[in-house]
Structure formats: structure tokens, C-alpha cells
Prior knowledge:
The chain is of the alpha+beta class. Helix content is about 50%, strand content about 25%.
Amino acid sequence: MNELMSPMHQKILALLILLLLILAFVNILVEPIYSNLVEKAEQAHMLENRLEGYTRVLAQKEALEQRLIAIQDRPLRDPFYYGDSDSDLNAQVQSDVRRLVERVGARIESMRSISITNEDDIYTVGLRMNAQMSMEALAQLLSQISAHNQLIELDNITIRTSQRQNGVNPPILEVEWDIIGMGILHMLPGGET
């Protein structure tokens, strides 16, 4: 075979075989070890990030505990209206809603009661209201309703721009919605309502 190949060819063949052996060695041994090291480094980085997060939480532990105690010391708001009759409950919900709407500068076009339902002695008192207000007033009203002492839900909301726009003032919205409050009738002696 030496006669078939010149010394130059033999050197090239030896280099190619050596190169193939090196590549095989890298693929079989070095590459898996390198991949494992990269994976471990990524895991270590992820664990360092978690540790930093836990350290931040621990640094805020005292402040968070004080905030939790303050929240626990606050009395829970009572989500119900209380009245002697369902019409009394309805009047309370209407009064609260009217006060909230007028406080933000909105104008009530109409407000009417919708059917009152009773389930397990909890009365659902509903109003259907049409009002005109600016976008800012609507945002303020929604914020006030969410912070209100009694639970008030909104349902069947329709918002349109008013037909009476003058192009100078901010747009006026016509808002139609159902406003729902929950109430309990006062108990009379003997457990009757």
C-alpha cells in the first residue's frame, strides 16, 4: 500500500484519521460534559435569581407582617343593606346610588326598580338606571362603587355616546345599567321577618 500512496498522501490520510478521532472524542466525551456544565450553570443562575427574590421578601418580612396585622385589624365591611321591608331596602339602594352618581357630577336620566328576589333570606334589590356622564365621571363612579361599604354589582351595562354633543366639551356618555344590592330584612322577635 505504501507504493500506491505517496508520502504526502499518507500524511494527509493520517491527519484526516487524527481529525476524525478528535471529532469522535469531542462528540462522545467533551460535548456531553460541556452541555452538562452549561445546563448546571443555567440552573445555578436560576437558583441565584430565586435566592435574590427570597432575600428581598425576607428583607420586607417585618413590613409585610405589619401590613398583614393592619389588614386583619380592620373590620370587615358588611356587604348587606338592612331594612324593615323590601321597599325599605330598595330605597336605601336608590339613595346610595343617587348619592354616588351625583357626587361625580353625572346626571340621572331615569331610575326604576326591577324585581326583588329572595333567596335564603337574602334579598336582591335591583335598579335599572340611565345616566349621562363624562368618561372621567364614569371612571370615578366605578371606583366609588367598588370601594362602597355595601356590595353593589353592575350588570347589563350599555355605554353609548350621547346624541347631544357640541364638539367643544368632552364627550358625554349615556350609560344604562342594572345596579344590584343585597339586603337582609331585620328579624322580629321570634325569628320572623
